[in-house]
Design a protein that fits this description.
Blueprint: E1 3-4, H1 23-34, H2 39-53, E2 61-67, H3 74-88, E3 93-98, H4 105-108, E4 113-114, H5 118-124, H6 131-135, E5 139-140, E6 146-148, H7 161-171, E7 177-182, H8 188-196, E8 199-205, H9 208-223, E9 233-238, H10 248-256, E10 261-265, H11 269-272, H12 284-302
Parallel strand pairs: 2-7, 2-8, 3-6, 3-7, 8-9, 9-10
Antiparallel strand pairs: 1-4, 5-6
Amino acid sequence: MPVPAVDPDLLPAHRRSRSGDSLVRRARRSLRQLLLSSTSRDVAEATRIAQALQQPVTTGRQISVTSIRGGAGKTTVAALLNLTYAHYRQDPVLALEADPALGTLPIRLAAPAVRWTCTDLAQVISPSMQFAEITGYLVQVEEGGWLLPGSQGRVGTRLELPSYRAVMMALRRYFGITVVDCETLPNPLARTALAAAHARVLVAPATMEGVASTRAVLEWMADVPRPRLLPATVVALTKSSPDMTIDMAAASAYLGAAGARVVTIPYDRHLAAGGPIRTAALGQETRLAAGQLAAELLDRALRKQR
């Protein structure tokens, strides 16, 4: 039986979504556009990202998203990636929640309700199924793509490794890109998802503790002989508050020294408010950063295909 993604009694607490950019920032951007300042650079970068995101995929690519701790913005980044790929690509895109412990991906992707979970689908999926049959077990995302939740918002829901492997193996032929919202490290399921993915993003909060912990994970990745994890890993450095005082350039350099590409996700009022993500409400810098991150990951996921 379908379960609402958000308890109807909680809906009155959610105010109207705010724009990711403040009124002052939007006014400044409009002025720059009127003066033709940096407009050509913005257009060139947007064109480059669009071309990178539309690269052909011969077999389904899996991109895992994880972090070293909760609250880093892992699920938000997974949702942003799903929306970005679904916007630019023609082939089907799937967001899969491999974090059944009260995961919030259905809320972030504005799912009206969830019925089937990854564990449920593992019990019925077969190679003979057609795409139309598969999507009957999924949630269609309003802004594009599909969603397979990890739970129905219940405490104690489990996703076992055999179920995860069975579902991921079966779904590869239906979806060009699958974004996997993993549990936090060092959970065994998260480690399995990292090893099986064609590319991976490690979400790090822009704090001293978050950067230090993420650097330790990158060094661990560098020591894993097989599969080689670090070359296909990108760090998403997230700002959850406008008052964060960490030097982003220095933090990015510190993480980059460990061998990973770093993409900064700026503070965005729309994202910080929680609730469903609406692409039109995101700040311009956030949309650009999400595109850059998605393009970097797809490029790494396709390297073995070339």
